[in-house]
Design brief:
The complex is a heterotrimer of chains A (264), B (213) and C (222). Chain B has 213 residues and is mostly helical. Chain B is 82% helix and 0% strand. Chain B has one domain: MetI-like (MetI-like fold), CATH 1.10.3720.10. Chain C is built from nine helices and no strands. Classes of the chains: A alpha/beta (264), B mainly alpha (213), C mainly alpha (222). At the B-C interface, helix 2, helix 3, helix 6, helix 7 and helix 8 of B face helix 4, helix 7, helix 8 and helix 9 of C. The complex binds adenosine-5'-triphosphate (ATP) and magnesium ion (MG).
Chain lengths: 264, 213, 222
């Protein structure tokens, strides 16, 4: 099982009506590493991530998580067969997801957010769940804020609670969709630090980000998406180093300030 | 106006409050069902729910009350006019409350539900732990307004012979020839009741508020 | 249950006349309510603080009491303070006052919802106060308030039925009278409900159409 990649995506196609957002993506996310997904706005990064989380159903193609098919298997004649909901939930339980908008439940405290699934889904007693949640919160440096409601926390703190909430369920793969895009620069740092520590602990991560510095320093693999296609894939030095693919050059010029681009 | 007359109004307002409270509660139960129908995957149920909401919001409560008052005996249900009043008021407020509830559920941000999906919540658990509490909190102000609306609308059941606050004022005005004082006093009693309800609503809102979404 | 369509048809002229009264009361009452409501809202927002408080009381009094009680007070209580109105006038005045209170609150919410920045931006490009009101505030507010104004106007139609209780010769009264005469209440009220329902649906359809047409004025997503 260990030789199987954490995530394997094959010929994934996703359409919204007549709009083809992903046109045949192949992707392998190796275990224990950080893979960063970059690309211009609207290129389909979020859609790809949401397909991998099964929040969105792809129209064609297959996804495997730890070697197990997610949602669909390919049949004898190449057709896709839908798997039962329980199977989908089981495969999905390997994945934790962190959203750009945090998506903390506003009617629960930070501690409640982290403990909730342990109680409701895993059936743990509330007290044990809260102990475990507390440990997760202190891992992200927020034990002092456990009793606060999301509306009483800064964006950076909310996002760290969201990370703790995902980690509490012991996933072996973490998906991040632009986790720092709605944060001020000062708050971005604290979230990126938590992610860095997580990467060092050997977590398999797939990160959609515009933080090229983070991608270059923490990512083992960079995947560049444009118009729903994978354009470039490789180690950060291969992707960002010169000579660069012309689209990457354009992307760095257009979407980032030149200062950041020349740092690389 | 004597205290005795005023006290008669206050006593009659008991029925106003009871009729309204019962109708609002029954209406809420019915509204939950209608809301479930409107939001369900079943096309027939959706259509039926929408038709119900459209009809009871699209016709005057007075006409609904008159229709029900005369319809019930024709289909063999000889019930007291208080019951006819409750049936009419419940149906009407159910339509409004169903729309309010639907609005609440629709306003629960999708991301919160997706987060629950990612944490492995079953649809039932997502409903119970996430969608319902948030929707309820979002709808409290609108439900309070609807309760006040119903308290005021309950004055219409005076037409089908229920001796509640308005009808009592009417009867007393006719016998004492003092409509000015009696209707003003009746209005005052309604106002006090509504202020209390509004206050309760605000209290509830505050108690359930954990800040904004 | 005998569904006597012939009966209805033979009284069609009466019913149509009553329908005309209903629609007239509705349109005139709503229009006056919207107008008076606007004046109240402007006075409360731009007038002296004392005026705001002085207007708050009547608005809340109207909003806190049943329309029926207000109508009774006006129609039966009015003569005692020298205000003898016939039923139609009392109905129209009552409807206007009632509507004005609610519409004024809608206008106020509209004024409050327009970001200060939009007004400042207008002044920066050199629009004077009147131009700002005409070119910026009113168009933005129309779009913002349209759905709630349509809702309130639909409520006004339904409230006209209450005027039958003080014998305003409108639709509900006409149908009730027929019902009494021929003991055909159920048929009459059923058809009556359908007529109101059709009017309400037509009104909300018009509202939706206007909303689509005006959607270019909608706030840009922020
Ligand atoms: N639910 C949806 N319905 C219709 N179209 C959608 C939906 N979600 C995304 N799209 C479209 O799919 C395309 C890709 O969107 P996606 O959100 O995946 O881009 P992205 O790469 O994440 O961009 P960004 O960097 O702005 O987040 C866009 O053109 C978008 O309009
Ligand atoms: Mg995105």
């Amino acid at each position: 099982m260990t030789e199987k990649p954490a995530i394997k995506v094959e010929k994934l196609v996703k359409r919204f009506g007549a709009n083809t957002v992903l046109s045949g993506i192949d992707l392998v996310v190796p275990r224990g590493q950080v893979t960063c997904l970059i690309g211009p706005s609207g290129s389909g990064k979020s859609t790809l991530l949401r397909c991998i989380a099964f929040l969105e159903e792809a129209n064609e193609g297959l996804i495997e998580i730890n070697g197990e098919p997610l949602g669909f298997t390919s049949g004898e004649y190449g057709e896709r067969n839908r798997l039962p909901a329980a199977q989908i939930q089981k495969v999905r339980s390997h994945i934790g997801m962190v959203f750009q908008q945090f998506n903390l439940w506003p009617h629960m405290t930070a501690l409640g957010n982290v403990a909730e699934a342990l109680v409701t889904v895993r059936g743990m007693p509330r007290k044990a769940a809260e102990e475990r949640a507390m440990a997760q919160l202190s891992n992200v440096g927020l034990s002092a804020r456990a009793g606060h409601y999301p509306s009483e926390l800064s964006g950076g703190q909310q996002q760290r609670v969201a990370i703790a909430r995902a980690l509490a369920l012991d996933p072996d793969i973490m998906l991040f969709d632009e986790p720092t895009s709605s944060l001020d620069p000062e708050l971005t740092g604290e979230v990126l630090n938590v992610m860095r520590e997580l990467a060092q602990s050997g977590m398999t991560m797939l990160v959609v980000t515009h933080e090229i510095g983070f991608a270059a320093s923490v990512g083992s693999k960079i995947v560049f998406l444009d118009h729903g296609e994978k354009i470039v894939e490789g180690r950060p030095d291969e992707v960002f180093g010169k000579p660069r693919h012309e689209r990457i050059d354009q992307f760095l010029d257009t979407y980032l300030d030149r200062g950041a681009a020349t740092l690389l | 106006m004597s205290w005795k007359l005023f006290w008669l109004l206050v006593e009659a307002s008991r029925l106003t409050i009871i009729l309204s409270a019962v109708s609002i509660s029954l209406g809420f139960v019915l509204a939950s069902l209608v809301c479930a129908a409107v939001m369900s995957g079943n096309r027939a149920a959706r259509a039926a729910g929408r038709l119900f909401v459209s009809f009871f919001r699209g016709t005057p409560l007075l006409v609904q009350l008159l229709l029900i008052y005369y319809l019930l005996p024709q289909i063999g249900l000889n019930v007291p006019s208080e019951v006819a009043a409750i049936v009419g008021m419940s149906l009407c407020t159910a339509a409004y409350q169903a729309e309010i509830l639907r609005g609440g559920f629709v306003s629960v941000p999708r991301g919160l539900i997706e987060a629950a999906n990612m944490c492995g919540f079953s649809p039932a658990a997502t409903f119970r732990r996430i969608r319902l509490p948030i929707a309820v909190q979002l709808t409290i102000p609108a439900l309070t307004s609807e309760a006040i609306m119903m308290l005021k609308s309950s004055s219409l059941v005076s037409v089908v012979g229920v001796i509640e606050l308005t009808r009592m004022a009417q009867d007393l005005a006719a016998s004492t020839y003092r409509p000015l004082e009696l209707y003003a006093a009746a209005g005052f009693v309604y106002l006090v009741i509504n202020i209390v309800v509004a206050g309760l609503g605000l209290g509830l809102e505050k108690r359930m508020s954990w800040g904004r979404l | 249950m005998t569904f006597d369509l012939d009966l209805i048809i033979s009284f069609l002229p009466d019913i149509l006349r009553a329908l005309g009264v209903t629609i007239l009361l509705w349109i005139v009452g709503s229009a006056l309510g919207i107008l008076v409501g606007f004046v109240i809202a402007v006075l409360r927002r731009y007038g002296p603080r004392g005026l705001d408080l002085a207007l708050l009381a009547p608005v809340e009094l109207i909003r806190g009491t049943p329309f029926l009680v207000q109508i009774f007070l006006l129609y039966y209580g009015g003569p005692f303070i020298g205000l003898s109105l016939d039923s139609v006038t009392a109905g129209l005045v009552g409807l206007t006052i009632y509507g004005a209170a609610y519409y004024s609150e809608l206008w106020r919410s509209g004024f409050n919802a327009i970001p200060r920045g939009h007004i400042e931006a207008a002044q920066c490009v050199g629009l004077n106060r009147r131009q700002t009101l005409k070119r910026i505030i009113l168009p933005e507010m129309t779009m913002l308030l349209l759905p709630s104004m349509v809702n309130m106007t639909i409520l006004m139609l339904k409230e006209t039925a209450i005027l039958s209780i003080i014998s305003v010769p409108e639709l509900t009264l006409a149908v009730s009278a027929l019902g009494t005469k021929y003991y055909a209440f159920v048929e009459g009220f059923a058809i009556l409900a359908l007529v109101y329902w059709a009017l309400v649906e037509a009104c909300s359809a018009m509202g939706r159409y206007a909303e689509r047409r005006l959607s270019k004025y909608r706030f840009a997503a922020t």
